[in-house]
Amino acid sequence: MEKNTMKNELTNENAAHYVSLAPHIRSNDTVTKIMLDVIIALIPAMIASVYFFGQRSLLLIAACVISAVATEYITQKALKKTIRIGDLSAVVTGILIALNLPVSFPIWMAIFGSVFAILVVKECFGGIGFNFMNPALAARLILMASWAKEMTDYVAPEFARQGILTGATVDGMAYATPLAHLSAGTYENLPAISDMFIGNIGGVLGETSALALIIGFIYLVARKVISWEVPVIYVVVTAIFLPILGVPFEYVPHELLAGGLMLGAIFMATDYSTNPINRKGRIIFAIGCGILTALIRVKASLPEGVSYAICLMNLATPLIDKLTKTEAYGEAK
């Protein structure tokens, strides 16, 4: 039902009715209401980004949101399609792109990422509900491939708050994230678990504070925007496979709090458009994300694997849907 809500968006209360297989379930949810709830759930993470990294976080968020909304408007206007910027989906995409960037990231590159996400990944495939992978994650991947140095130019929070954003200007300011220490095996340099939970560590804007992300998760579950199953299964499976693949058991909590695992599991692995339709498919999807994340983190050359894991499972969603499809209600066996 959730996926059909996105793909069969109704522009007003009197729009044409859509007929699907029984049983017919009615819902008062609209895309705008859902997206507004997601924005509200992201507010704690945005506040945390400003608190830990300073006011430039707001500039990055504003640049990404404005460019995402403008791109959607211009594209739909040029293609003579219904203008749908009021559904707030482009706003959500812009916020998520910004939260996947370090505070030092150049503004023009951030705008490029937003334009790519909306124009190429979303609108070229038919708009909301038809994109084959999460637009914000696709933007992160293209930005990482294009400007890897800028995407990994992390700054310690105490320097970011002072407005010092480049490691070349201050000796010892260049920051190695907890994931980098975990990947290198330099466990003695890991920050305290409490700092990682609260968010007083370097990294991209939205992934450092697990506390802020969990608050958003609780809100989305309480509002029934998402189910708890995909994020929880994703994180638990990752936690199970990390030690199997060789991560010392005592450092598994650091792995779970480091990097983009919480942000990806809560806000991007639950994307309606790129998720399998039924519950069984979503569970398989979450398990696959967890296994791939652990595998990439431990065995690949990059310390992070969340973006690649979710995007790979996005591509597998049609196959999962085919393998887990159910019979129509009342259909003769």
TrEMBL record:
The gene is rnfD. Part of a membrane-bound complex that couples electron transfer with translocation of ions across the membrane. The lineage of its organism: Bacteria, Bacillati, Bacillota, Tissierellia, Tissierellales. Its EC number is 7.-.-.-. Keywords: Cell membrane, Electron transport, Flavoprotein, FMN, Membrane, Phosphoprotein, Translocase, Transmembrane, Transmembrane helix, Transport. Belongs to the NqrB/RnfD family. The complex is composed of six subunits: RnfA, RnfB, RnfC, RnfD, RnfE and RnfG. InterPro entries: NqrB/RnfD, RnfD_bac. This is Ion-translocating oxidoreductase complex subunit D. It is a multi-pass membrane protein.
